[in-house]
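Quick one, C-alpha coordinates below:
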Protein backbone atom coordinates (compact mmCIF):
# COMPACT_ATOMS: atom_id res chain seq x y z
CA UNK A 1 0.00 0.00 0.00
CA UNK A 2 1.51 3.31 -1.09
CA UNK A 3 0.21 5.25 1.91
CA UNK A 4 1.66 2.75 4.37
CA UNK A 5 5.02 2.91 2.64
CA UNK A 6 4.94 6.69 2.73
CA UNK A 7 4.18 6.74 6.46
CA UNK A 8 6.86 4.16 7.16
CA UNK A 9 9.48 6.43 5.58
CA UNK A 10 8.65 9.38 7.86
CA UNK A 11 11.04 9.96 10.74
CA UNK A 12 9.02 12.50 12.71
CA UNK A 13 5.47 12.66 14.04
CA UNK A 14 4.05 16.09 14.88
CA UNK A 15 1.32 16.39 17.50
CA UNK A 16 -0.96 19.11 16.12
CA UNK A 17 -3.49 19.01 18.96
CA UNK A 18 -4.23 16.48 21.68
CA UNK A 19 -6.59 16.20 24.62
CA UNK A 20 -8.66 13.41 26.20
CA UNK A 21 -11.43 13.60 23.55
CA UNK A 22 -9.35 13.56 20.36
CA UNK A 23 -5.93 14.07 18.85
CA UNK A 24 -4.53 15.11 15.48
CA UNK A 25 -1.09 13.98 14.35
CA UNK A 26 0.86 14.97 11.26
CA UNK A 27 2.99 12.26 9.67
CA UNK A 28 4.69 13.63 6.57
CA UNK A 29 1.92 14.84 4.27
CA UNK A 30 -0.80 12.92 6.10
CA UNK A 31 -2.94 14.08 9.02
CA UNK A 32 -4.23 11.35 11.33
CA UNK A 33 -7.31 12.37 13.30
CA UNK A 34 -8.09 10.10 16.24
CA UNK A 35 -11.50 10.61 17.81
CA UNK A 36 -13.19 8.50 20.49
CA UNK A 37 -16.60 9.72 19.27
CA UNK A 38 -17.16 8.30 15.81
CA UNK A 39 -20.34 10.36 15.43
CA UNK A 40 -18.14 13.43 15.05
CA UNK A 41 -16.07 11.67 12.42
CA UNK A 42 -19.24 10.61 10.59
CA UNK A 43 -20.29 14.26 10.44
CA UNK A 44 -16.86 15.36 9.30
CA UNK A 45 -16.68 12.87 6.45
CA UNK A 46 -20.20 13.60 5.20
CA UNK A 47 -19.77 17.37 5.53
CA UNK A 48 -16.56 17.32 3.48
CA UNK A 49 -18.35 15.25 0.85
CA UNK A 50 -21.24 17.72 0.63
CA UNK A 51 -19.34 21.01 0.98
CA UNK A 52 -18.99 23.03 -2.27
CA UNK A 53 -15.61 24.45 -1.21
CA UNK A 54 -12.19 22.75 -1.14
CA UNK A 55 -11.61 20.24 1.66
CA UNK A 56 -8.81 17.78 2.43
CA UNK A 57 -8.73 14.54 0.47
CA UNK A 58 -9.89 11.58 2.56
CA UNK A 59 -7.17 8.95 2.21
CA UNK A 60 -8.67 6.24 4.40
CA UNK A 61 -10.70 5.63 7.51
CA UNK A 62 -10.17 2.89 10.06
CA UNK A 63 -11.99 3.81 13.29
CA UNK A 64 -10.99 5.56 15.41
CA UNK A 65 -8.53 7.01 12.85
CA UNK A 66 -9.32 9.22 9.85
CA UNK A 67 -6.42 9.94 7.47
CA UNK A 68 -6.50 13.16 5.46
CA UNK A 69 -4.04 14.57 2.93
CA UNK A 70 -2.28 17.76 3.98
CA UNK A 71 -3.47 20.91 2.25
CA UNK A 72 -1.11 23.14 0.30
CA UNK A 73 -0.52 26.67 1.55
CA UNK A 74 -0.73 28.06 5.04
CA UNK A 75 -3.48 28.84 7.53
CA UNK A 76 -5.13 32.25 7.40
CA UNK A 77 -3.80 32.88 10.89
CA UNK A 78 -3.94 31.87 14.56
CA UNK A 79 -6.02 33.19 17.41
CA UNK A 80 -3.84 35.38 19.60
CA UNK A 81 -1.33 36.12 16.84
CA UNK A 82 -1.29 38.93 14.26
CA UNK A 83 -2.32 37.68 10.84
CA UNK A 84 0.12 38.29 8.00
CA UNK A 85 -2.51 37.37 5.39
CA UNK A 86 -3.55 40.05 2.91
CA UNK A 87 -6.94 41.75 2.72
CA UNK A 88 -7.56 39.70 -0.43
CA UNK A 89 -6.96 36.48 1.52
CA UNK A 90 -9.47 37.48 4.18
CA UNK A 91 -11.96 38.42 1.48
CA UNK A 92 -11.42 35.02 -0.16
CA UNK A 93 -12.29 33.38 3.15
CA UNK A 94 -15.49 35.43 3.28
CA UNK A 95 -16.36 34.38 -0.26
CA UNK A 96 -15.80 30.71 0.62
CA UNK A 97 -18.12 31.08 3.61
CA UNK A 98 -20.80 32.57 1.36
CA UNK A 99 -20.46 29.67 -1.10
CA UNK A 100 -20.91 27.20 1.74
CA UNK A 101 -23.91 29.06 3.15
CA UNK A 102 -25.58 29.13 -0.27
CA UNK A 103 -25.29 25.32 -0.60
CA UNK A 104 -28.18 22.93 0.16
CA UNK A 105 -28.65 22.20 3.84
CA UNK A 106 -26.98 19.08 5.25
CA UNK A 107 -29.52 16.44 6.30
CA UNK A 108 -28.70 16.55 10.03
CA UNK A 109 -29.96 19.32 12.36
CA UNK A 110 -27.89 21.91 14.14
CA UNK A 111 -28.04 23.37 17.63
CA UNK A 112 -31.43 24.50 18.91
CA UNK A 113 -31.78 28.07 20.12
CA UNK A 114 -33.21 27.08 23.49
CA UNK A 115 -30.33 24.65 24.10
CA UNK A 116 -27.81 27.35 23.25
CA UNK A 117 -29.44 29.86 25.61
CA UNK A 118 -29.53 27.29 28.43
CA UNK A 119 -25.88 26.40 27.93
CA UNK A 120 -24.90 30.08 27.94
CA UNK A 121 -26.69 30.61 31.26
CA UNK A 122 -24.89 27.62 32.76
CA UNK A 123 -21.45 28.65 31.54
CA UNK A 124 -21.85 32.22 32.77
CA UNK A 125 -22.90 30.96 36.19
CA UNK A 126 -19.88 28.63 36.29
CA UNK A 127 -17.47 31.42 35.34
CA UNK A 128 -18.77 33.66 38.13
CA UNK A 129 -19.23 30.99 40.82
CA UNK A 130 -15.71 29.64 40.34
CA UNK A 131 -14.11 33.08 40.17
CA UNK A 132 -12.71 32.42 36.71
CA UNK A 133 -13.73 35.88 35.45
CA UNK A 134 -15.01 39.04 37.16
CA UNK A 135 -18.79 39.09 37.43
CA UNK A 136 -19.10 42.43 35.65
CA UNK A 137 -17.10 41.11 32.66
CA UNK A 138 -19.35 38.05 32.38
CA UNK A 139 -22.56 40.03 32.91
CA UNK A 140 -21.66 42.66 30.32
CA UNK A 141 -20.78 40.06 27.70
CA UNK A 142 -23.89 38.04 28.55
CA UNK A 143 -25.94 41.11 27.64
CA UNK A 144 -23.98 41.58 24.41
CA UNK A 145 -24.45 37.90 23.55
CA UNK A 146 -28.25 38.19 23.75
CA UNK A 147 -28.28 39.76 20.26
CA UNK A 148 -27.16 36.42 18.82
CA UNK A 149 -29.99 34.53 20.55
CA UNK A 150 -32.66 35.21 17.95
CA UNK A 151 -34.29 33.04 15.29
CA UNK A 152 -32.16 32.60 12.17
CA UNK A 153 -32.69 31.07 8.76
CA UNK A 154 -30.53 27.91 8.86
CA UNK A 155 -27.72 27.50 6.35
CA UNK A 156 -24.96 24.94 5.80
CA UNK A 157 -22.41 26.05 8.41
CA UNK A 158 -18.91 24.80 9.13
CA UNK A 159 -19.54 25.27 12.85
CA UNK A 160 -15.92 25.96 13.82
CA UNK A 161 -14.66 28.25 11.06
CA UNK A 162 -11.71 29.65 12.97
CA UNK A 163 -8.83 31.07 10.96
CA UNK A 164 -6.52 28.15 11.75
CA UNK A 165 -8.91 25.93 9.78
CA UNK A 166 -8.76 27.97 6.55
CA UNK A 167 -5.80 27.37 4.23
CA UNK A 168 -4.69 29.60 1.37
CA UNK A 169 -1.96 29.84 -1.23
CA UNK A 170 -1.44 33.14 -3.07
CA UNK A 171 -4.72 34.46 -1.64
CA UNK A 172 -6.64 31.46 -3.03
CA UNK A 173 -8.48 29.04 -0.74
CA UNK A 174 -6.85 25.61 -0.93
CA UNK A 175 -9.09 24.00 1.64
CA UNK A 176 -10.97 24.19 4.93
CA UNK A 177 -10.36 21.57 7.66
CA UNK A 178 -12.08 20.25 10.82
CA UNK A 179 -15.72 19.74 9.83
CA UNK A 180 -16.89 17.76 12.87
CA UNK A 181 -19.12 20.63 14.06
CA UNK A 182 -20.75 21.20 10.65
CA UNK A 183 -24.52 21.31 10.37
CA UNK A 184 -27.50 23.59 9.98
CA UNK A 185 -26.83 26.86 11.74
CA UNK A 186 -26.54 30.64 11.72
CA UNK A 187 -24.42 32.08 8.90
CA UNK A 188 -23.26 34.89 11.17
CA UNK A 189 -21.82 32.39 13.65
CA UNK A 190 -19.39 31.20 10.96
CA UNK A 191 -18.42 34.80 10.15
CA UNK A 192 -17.92 35.52 13.85
CA UNK A 193 -15.77 32.41 14.29
CA UNK A 194 -13.67 33.45 11.30
CA UNK A 195 -13.01 36.94 12.68
CA UNK A 196 -12.80 36.16 16.42
CA UNK A 197 -9.86 38.10 17.83
CA UNK A 198 -9.24 39.73 14.43
CA UNK A 199 -11.88 42.44 14.35
CA UNK A 200 -9.66 44.54 12.09
CA UNK A 201 -10.36 42.09 9.24
CA UNK A 202 -14.13 41.97 9.64
CA UNK A 203 -14.61 44.47 6.80
CA UNK A 204 -12.51 42.34 4.43
CA UNK A 205 -14.48 39.20 5.27
CA UNK A 206 -17.83 40.94 4.82
CA UNK A 207 -16.65 42.42 1.51
CA UNK A 208 -15.77 38.93 0.29
CA UNK A 209 -19.04 37.55 1.65
CA UNK A 210 -20.80 39.91 -0.71
CA UNK A 211 -23.98 40.80 1.13
CA UNK A 212 -25.06 42.98 4.03
CA UNK A 213 -24.78 41.37 7.45
CA UNK A 214 -25.70 42.53 10.95
CA UNK A 215 -22.37 43.46 12.51
CA UNK A 216 -23.91 43.70 15.99
CA UNK A 217 -24.96 40.06 15.77
CA UNK A 218 -21.43 39.06 14.72
CA UNK A 219 -20.06 40.93 17.73
CA UNK A 220 -22.66 39.18 19.90
CA UNK A 221 -21.43 35.82 18.64
CA UNK A 222 -17.86 36.84 19.59
CA UNK A 223 -19.02 37.26 23.18
CA UNK A 224 -21.19 34.16 23.15
CA UNK A 225 -18.56 31.89 21.60
CA UNK A 226 -15.92 33.10 24.06
CA UNK A 227 -18.16 32.64 27.10
CA UNK A 228 -19.02 29.11 26.00
CA UNK A 229 -15.43 28.15 25.23
CA UNK A 230 -13.55 29.16 28.37
CA UNK A 231 -14.45 26.26 30.65
CA UNK A 232 -13.70 23.68 27.92
CA UNK A 233 -10.37 25.33 27.15
CA UNK A 234 -9.32 25.41 30.80
CA UNK A 235 -10.33 21.79 31.38
CA UNK A 236 -8.43 20.62 28.30
CA UNK A 237 -5.17 22.39 29.07
CA UNK A 238 -5.51 25.50 26.92
CA UNK A 239 -5.15 29.10 28.07
CA UNK A 240 -8.06 31.36 27.10
CA UNK A 241 -6.37 34.27 28.91
CA UNK A 242 -3.37 34.27 26.54
CA UNK A 243 -2.95 37.60 24.71
CA UNK A 244 -5.52 38.08 21.98
CA UNK A 245 -7.56 35.02 22.96
CA UNK A 246 -11.04 34.56 24.42
CA UNK A 247 -10.64 36.59 27.63
CA UNK A 248 -9.21 39.52 25.69
CA UNK A 249 -12.13 39.23 23.25
CA UNK A 250 -14.52 39.57 26.19
CA UNK A 251 -12.58 42.53 27.61
CA UNK A 252 -12.77 44.30 24.25
CA UNK A 253 -16.59 44.35 24.58
CA UNK A 254 -16.44 46.35 27.84
Amino acid sequence: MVISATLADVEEVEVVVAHHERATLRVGDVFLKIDADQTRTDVEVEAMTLAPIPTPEILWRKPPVLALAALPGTALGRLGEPSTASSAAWAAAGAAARMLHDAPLPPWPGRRLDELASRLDGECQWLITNGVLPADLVTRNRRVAEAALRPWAPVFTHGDLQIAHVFLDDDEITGVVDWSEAGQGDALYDLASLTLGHEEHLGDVVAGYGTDVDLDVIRAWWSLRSLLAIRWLVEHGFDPSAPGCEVDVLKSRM
